[in-house]
Amino acid sequence: MRFVIVTGMSGAGKSSALRFLEDINYFCVDNMPPALLPKFAELCFEQDGGFERVAIGIDIRGGKLFYDLFSVLFQLQESGYEYEILFLDAKDSVLIKRYKETRRSHPLSRKGSIEEGISKEREMLRDVKSKATYIIDTSNVLTRELKEQINRIFQDDEKFDNLVITVCSFGFKYGIPPDSDLVFDVRFLPNPYYISELKELTGNDAPVSDYVMGFEESRAFLDKLVDMLEFLIPHYIKEGKNSLVISIGCTGGKHRSVTLANALFAALSQEKHTVLLKHNDIEKDAKRKG
């Protein structure tokens, strides 16, 4: 039987994760007091196959009861019950934005600021996060992308590195994405913008992609970039990094950066990394003209 404990930062997507687990036939219970876990686990594991997949949502909504979680996890281990912990996380700035957009208050900031509540919660969850089997940082993850990751881990049993890599194209004239960890400038490559039949297309179109990748320097850049990242990624994972944003920029974020971002995404995906692809500025020139 697969027994999953879903926890993490409030606003990071725990409710969505439980919903997606339910969609793939997990028996889900949300906001269970940790003290009830051993008895519930006993019922689940001794049902002779009655439960094959179980997911339990536990978070700081339980107040002081949440502090029982560590002793409870020890009890589960002592009883021989195997479990996995899925921890949902996100950057503070993203969590603050989500709370402000929904006009909800943080569970730990009823009388204070959202920032204070997030800080308190992060401290409370620090040790739980260190014990997590899987950590998903949802800062740059769309709902459908979170569902795909949940399915990969808990339905398809694919390898998961706890590092979500986002490959992002952008235009320097619109600014470097503020959440970038690594930034690469491909403005040294020949620009399709100056070729009339390619100007209105994007790097998602084969004629532009073929043009950009037709140059030896484009292919050499991609090979060297992939080689460097394959060296860095294991070290980032070892360090405990959960999110890596690789931004590739050209002038307008429409041709060269899109082409190279697509190529890098394909290369990293082949290595079974968890990779997301975003094109920040691909439509901005069209909108300006419109």
TrEMBL record:
This is RNase adapter RapZ. InterPro entries: P-loop_NTPase, RapZ-like, RapZ-like_N, RapZ_C. Coiled coil: none annotated. Residues 1-157 form the RapZ-like N-terminal domain. Keywords: ATP-binding, GTP-binding, Nucleotide-binding. ATP binds at residues 8-15. Residues 164-283 form the RapZ C-terminal domain. Pfam families: PapZ_C, RapZ-like_N. GTP binds at residues 59-62. Gene3D superfamilies: P-loop containing nucleotide triphosphate hydrolases (3.40.50.300). SUPFAM superfamilies: P-loop containing nucleoside triphosphate hydrolases. The gene is rapZ.
